[in-house]
Amino acid sequence: MKFLDQCKIYLKSGDGGRGASSFRREKFIEFGGPDGGDGGKGGDIVLESADNLNTLIDYRYRQHFRAQNGRGGAGANRTGAQGRDTVLMVPVGTQVFADDKETVLADLTRPGQRIVLLRGGDGGFGNSHYKTSTNQAPRRAGPGWPGQELWVWLRLKLIADAGLVGLPNAGKSTLLSRLSHAKPKIADYPFTTLHPQLGVVRLDDDTEFVLADLPGLIEGASEGAGLGTRFLGHVERCAVILHLIDGTEEDVVGAYATIRQELADYGHGLADKPEIVGLNKIDAIDEGEVAAKCRALVEAARPGSSVLPLSGVSGAGIQPVLGTLLAAIGAARADAPAEPSALVAAE
Predict the structure, then answer these.
(1) Which of 156, 174, 190 is the last residue of a domain?
(2) pTM summary value
(3) pLDDT (tens digit per residue) in 198-226
(4) Where are the beta strands (DSSP E) in 42-120?
(5) Measured at the alpha carbon of residue 94, what is the angle toward residues 90 and 7, in degrees to the nearest 5?
């Protein structure tokens, strides 16, 4: 299944049904009076989050969604049937933006969360509604109210406990494949990973967390260079950042500073998230060089960040990294504010 984290779709809720203009006509009833029923309400556009989805690919080939119109009223005070709602299933972590791509209309962060994004139009009144003491035979019947229509952007921000960031070829996919059952593409050239990958890391039967491998970032990613501007948003949902540095790089401090600058330029609190720095590929360099580069990273890293050597290939140093990650995730989740409720549907 292809990964798609952003798309634009057209939505329209159903129009309300027309009210009926009718009069009671029965044998031996000379003055039956008006008996036109009201029209039915149009269907709503509803968004529902599902935890078994992780992509918006369903909306790549179909971009127009309309709810059913309400049925018209009928004689004998029969109200028209309501239009069927159109329910769009989206992955957990989906945000709904207006056409300007800035105004957030809804944010679905929990499985099973439902939001009425566009409400269907109300049905029109039948002529029996307009009967008064001075107008006992009205012929007036109201048309149904029109539904709402809107172009919206859906943007998926994956929800993970920890996010792997780093320059291309830092070894993020290799580490994810070693820690979980995920099978990302691994190769010795930059930008092997083109889409975010999720893996569940299980430490024991009762302890697990979700780790996200994001495409490699380069200088200028926050301004659109490379693939970064598209995928930095996925880091927003992560509680902790695991920043991988290629230990075979000559200038590990420069590699670290490049990613830190991009996180700061992107904003949205990414630079303030708890961070663990991992010096990867220590199996390819000698111990003295590992110690020297760790010391350099400790001096360059933000206060409170842990610097740990590891190897995604040999598995060296993996357990200390997992223990530190788990502790940081627990602390971040405990300090996190309660999840805000979904935003009100568009008027």
Answers:
(1) 156
(2) 0.68
(3) 777 777 767 777 887 777 665 554 454 44
(4) 45-50, 64-66, 86-91, 94-97, 104-108, 114-118
(5) 80
